[in-house]
Amino acid sequence: MARKERPARPGDLLLTEVSEHLRGSPAVEEGLMLHSPGLKVGGTFFAFVGGDDDLIVKLPRARADAAVADGSAHPVTLGTRTMKEWVSVPFPGRSGDGREAWRAAVDEAHAYVASLSADPAAPRTAASRDLSAR
Question: What is the pTM of this model?
Answer without folding.
Answer: 0.80
